[in-house]
Amino acid sequence: MLSLNRPLSARNLAAGPLICLVLAPASATAVGIRQPLQFFSGRTEMISTVKVMAKKPYRSRTMGNGRMLPDGSLALVQQVFDDGKSPAQRNWKMHQIGPGRYAGTMSDAIGPVLVEEVNGSYRFKFRMKGGVSIEQWLTPVPGAEAAKSNMTARKFGLQVATSQGIVRRI
Length: 170
Description:
Layout: H1 10-13, H2 15-18, H3 20-23, E1 42-52, E2 58-68, E3 74-82, E4 88-98, E5 101-106, E6 109-118, E7 121-128, E8 132-140, E9 146-155, E10 158-169
Antiparallel strand pairs: 1-2, 1-10, 2-3, 3-4, 4-5, 5-6, 6-7, 7-8, 8-9, 9-10
């Protein structure tokens, strides 16, 4: 949990880059941009570099296992492996709320995770414990079952962390 009285936790900030395991489409020829939740039905992997203000950058790896539920929503369980930390688990449930719009929950978020499609990319917005706001952009990689991720974490309006990575179906 993030706290105002202690430094930002690498484990909690890694949630932003891991979000891309939820909705990022593979490509127009793979599972399909019209069905981005289905991309994560099965196994996925995310590799990213997280940079927290005044700290050394570190590598984060997340393995996801997702399944489509009868109501069309996605249930995703992730195993998070951050350099120098014990493994952790994160749980998601996401569903479509309109054309190009998604909402759901994530175990490290406070309130809903909201996602909207913008010009073929996906913008994620949510708040984490400790008052950290996350905005993440996911952009499909043409011709590959992958998406690029760029995340910014802000606290009190100031940028406190960033992450760049890639998610792929395995």
